């Protein structure tokens, strides 16, 4: 079981290193949505703070820390080689050309949550809200990629190892969280993610057949 716990902690981060390598090698980001990194950064930041209110498994805490470090690196690589194309958003959120702005937004979000936690941590409902917020965000993880694939009518530039990792990881997590009696939000999040993963698989077949 120790081996499984270690794999749960490190594998989600390892999956993204091929994408990082691909972007550095090609010096452009064609198919990866930086919104995916944004979701993971905010979701895992929230999940870390949630841990202080409800101590879930330590390997899941380590997983969140590693994912934050990995996606800070991936985001840096994306911004360096391919600044995001402009889309109309409030305050141009998450489509800035400067890496430090992304970091500052993440720091601001964490400061806000930490402040709220110190004030409201005695209330169990607040801790539960943190858990559902973290995992609700994570459940939307594949959505930006689904949208980008639809816009491009292609999965070019998006590494299939990430998709395979999402499918295998999310399916495994559903079973793992149930067997480990993890808080309910964990299992619900994984079930929703599996559904979105299936949509990307369908996209892969549809767009490949149109070539």
UniProtKB/TrEMBL annotation:
One of its GO terms (cellular component) is membrane. SMART domains: CTNS (SM00679). It is found in: Membrane. It comes from the Eukaryota. The chain crosses the membrane at residues 6-24, 58-79, 99-119, 125-146, 158-179, 185-207. It is a multi-pass membrane protein. Keywords: Membrane, Transmembrane, Transmembrane helix. One of its GO terms (biological process) is retrograde transport, endosome to Golgi. This is PQ-loop-domain-containing protein. It comes from Wallemia mellicola (strain ATCC MYA-4683 / CBS 633.66).
């Amino acid at each position: 079981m120790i081996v499984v716990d270690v794999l749960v902690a490190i594998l989600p981060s390892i999956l993204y290193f091929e994408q990082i390598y691909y972007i550095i090698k090609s010096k452009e980001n064609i198919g990866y949505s930086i919104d995916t990194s944004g979701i993971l950064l905010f979701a895992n930041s929230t999940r870390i703070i949630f841990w202080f209110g409800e101590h879930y498994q330590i390997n899941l805490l380590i997983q969140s820390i590693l994912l934050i470090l990995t996606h800070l690196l991936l985001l840096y690589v994306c911004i360096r080689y391919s600044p995001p194309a402009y889309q109309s958003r409030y305050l141009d959120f998450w489509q800035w050309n400067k890496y430090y702005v992304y970091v500052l937004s993440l720091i601001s979000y964490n400061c806000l949550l930490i402040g709220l936690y110190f004030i409201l941590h005695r209330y169990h409902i607040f801790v539960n809200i943190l858990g559902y917020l973290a995992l609700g965000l994570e459940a939307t993880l594949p959505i930006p990629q689904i949208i980008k694939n639809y816009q491009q009518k292609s999965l070019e530039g998006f590494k299939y190892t990430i998709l395979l990792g999402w499918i295998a990881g999310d399916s495994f997590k559903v079973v793992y969280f149930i067997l480990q009696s993890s808080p309910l939000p964990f299992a619900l999040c994984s079930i929703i993610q599996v559904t979105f993963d299936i949509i990307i698989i369908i996209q892969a077949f549809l767009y490949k057949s149109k070539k």
